Amino acid sequence: MNDNSRTSRQALKKANSSTRKLTEPENDEPSLYNEDLRQKTRWSILWTVVRIASDQMFSFVVFVILARLLSPHEIGIFALAIAFTEVSRVIAIQGMVQNIPRAKKLTPELADTVFWTNLAMSVVVAFVVLGLAPIIMGVIDQPDAAAPLQALGFVLPIAALGATHMSLRLREFGHKSLALRSLVGGTIGGGAAIAAAFAGWGIWSLVVQRFVTESMNALMAWLSYRWLPGRNFSIKQLRAIWGFGFNMALTQILGLLPRRAIDLVIGTVIGAAAVGIYRTAGRTSELVATGTISPYTTVALQTLSRLQTDTKEITKAFRWMVSRSAMLTIPAMVGFGVLAPDAVPAIYGEKWRDAGVLAQTFACLGVTYSISSFASPLLMALGRGATLRTLSICNLTATVVVAMLAAPFGIFVMAWASVVRGYLSLPFTLWALKRASGITPLDALSAVSKPLAASLMMGAGVWGLMELIRPMFAQVLIPVFICVGAGMAIYAILILAISQQARQLAGNQLKRVRAFTGKK
To answer: Where are the domains of the chain?
Structure first.
C-alpha cells in the first residue's frame, strides 16, 4: 500500500470513528440527540454564522460595487445564464455527494466512486452546455447570454474537484473549514470581479468571479481534508448509490427551478433588464434571509442524518432549529421590508429604485422561509426522497403557472403573486412534514408565532420612526441606520418580554460568556 492510499484510508477511518460515536451510542446513553451531538451542532452553527457573516458582508460590498458599475440589462443577462448553470451543477455534482453525509459507514470505495463520478459527469455536462447554449438562448430570445453560459459550463469540473473533499469534511462537522474556504474564495473572487468591472469587462466580470471563486474553493477543500482520490472506483458501489444520488439531484433541481423559472419567464415576456431588477431585489432579500437562517439549515442535514433512526429525537432537533432560526430570520425580514424602498436605491443607485419596492414585497416571505427551509434537510435525512420530490414538483408547477399568468402585468404583480403562492403552498409542506416525521402544523407554527408577533410590533415602530425622522436628513442612509439600531433594540425587548424560550436562551448565553471570561 502506498503512502497516498494509506493517508486516504486513515482519513476515512477517522471519519468513521467519529460517526460511530454518533450512530452507535453506548447502551447507557438514553438519547441519540445527546450532548456530544448537541455540542457539535452548536459549534458547527457558530462557525457557519462566522462564515455567512463574513461571506455576506463581503458579497454585499462586491454586489453594491458591481450593481453601480453594471446595468440592469447586463445583470439580467448573467442571471439568465446562471439559471442554466446552477441546474447543470446539480446534475453533475450535488446529488451524488449527498451520499457521503448520509452513509452509516464511510469506505474508500464510496469516496472514490463519488469523486470520479462527479468529475466525469461535470466534464460531460460542460460540453453539453457548450453545444446547447446558443440553441437554448435563441429559443428564449436572449442570444447575448449564450457566450457567458458556454464559459460558465466549464466552471463545473473545477467545482467537482473540491465537492467530495468538502462533503467529507462536513461529515465530521468541519464547518470551520467551510468558513475559511468561503472567506478566501469569496474575497479573491470578488476582488477579481471588481477589477474586471473597472477594466470595462461588463458581464464578463461576473464570469471571472465564478471561475476564480470556484478555483479557490477547490484548493481550500483539498487543504481542509487531506485525502487523495484513489483507484477504488466501483461499479457495484455506483449502482448502490446511484438511486439516492439521482433522487437528490432531481429533488434539488425541482427546488431550484421555481426561482429560475421566474427569471426565464420575465426574460422571455418582459426582457433582460426586468430580470436584472427582479433578481437584484431577490438577491438583496436573500442576503438578509440567508444570513439568519443558513447557519441552521447548513448544519441541519448532518445533525438530522445522525438521528434518522429515532423519530422522537429528530423531531426534537427539528423544533430546536426552527425556533432558534425564526428568532433571527423573521425580525430581519420584517425590518428589511420596512426600510428596503429607501435603503436599496440609496445603496445601489437610483437606477435600482424599483428593486427596492420589489425587495419589500419579497420580505413578506419571512414566515415561509423559517419553516419551509428545513423541509428539505429533514426529508432527506429521513430518506423521504419521494415526498420531497412531490413537494418540489407541485411547487415548480404552481410557480410556472403563476409566473406566466402574472408576467403580462409586470414584475410588481409577479412579485406579489409569488408571495401569495408561497403562503398557499405552506399548508402542503406542513402536511408532508407531519406524514414523514409526526411534526404537526401546530408544532411548526408555534415555533415562529412569538418571533412573528414581536417582529410585527417592531416593524410598526420602525415604520413610524422612519416616517418621523426621514425629513430631518439630506442623506437617507442616516435615518436607515438609526432605524436599524432602534429596531434591534425594540425587538430584543419585545421577544424577551413575550418568549420564555428567548429568556432561557439569553440566560444560557450569558452563563457561557461569564464562564468564558472567568466571572462567577
So the answer is: 1-24+32-233
